[in-house]
Write a structure and sequence with these properties.
By secondary structure, the chain is of the alpha+beta class. It is built from two helices and four strands, in the order βαβαββ.
Length: 75
């Protein structure tokens, strides 16, 4: 199952806060797909998955106004 989360229009740290809340609501192995337009989201999400131990499945930066990230809950 994939949960979709639209954080467009939100600035740091809100996209990461929303991602953290969404991850806590899903089961281990499930995924959250985040769409963001905050330029700081890419480094933030990389640091966040490293710190939390969740898996960064995909990171699509091809359109800087529509950054798309999929994170899998691992624990």
């Amino acid at each position: 199952m994939v949960t979709n989360l639209d954080t467009k229009g939100l600035k740091c740290p809100m996209p990461i806060i929303k991602l953290g809340a969404a991850i806590r609501q899903i089961a281990v192995g499930e995924q959250v797909r985040v769409v963001a337009d905050d330029k700081g989201f890419t480094p933030d999400v990389r640091a966040w998955v490293e710190k939390t131990g969740h898996e960064l499945v995909t990171l699509d930066e091809s359109d800087p106004n529509n950054l798309v990230v999929v994170v899998r809950r691992t624990k």
